[in-house]
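Following the same procedure, sequence and fold were stored together, as reproduced here:

>
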Amino acid sequence: MAGIDYGTLRRQLRLDQVLELLDFVPSRRCGAQVRGPCPVHGAHRPQSRWFAAHLQWQCWHCFHCQAGGNALDLWVAVTRLPVYEAALDLCRRLHLEVPWLPARRCSSRSPPGY
């Protein structure tokens, strides 16, 4: 299985894209920060403000369930997919190229001591 360059992917993803995929509707907006119901634990009241996302800093936090992180972390938390599958799913949904890690070259030499 080929590896994903998660650092590159996290820099490519935008939190507002993931919030849009989740149909997040903020109950309050203040500059680059939005507040509203938490998509992770499924807050049901639309006026809830437990969830905060800072769109400039690309991070989020829920003050109820204590979850937080970046855009990929949010997708993982909501979909409950393993991070590898969640990364592939997000790239597909957002029409992003998957940032694959370069293939490792196998050496025919044995490690020292063998």
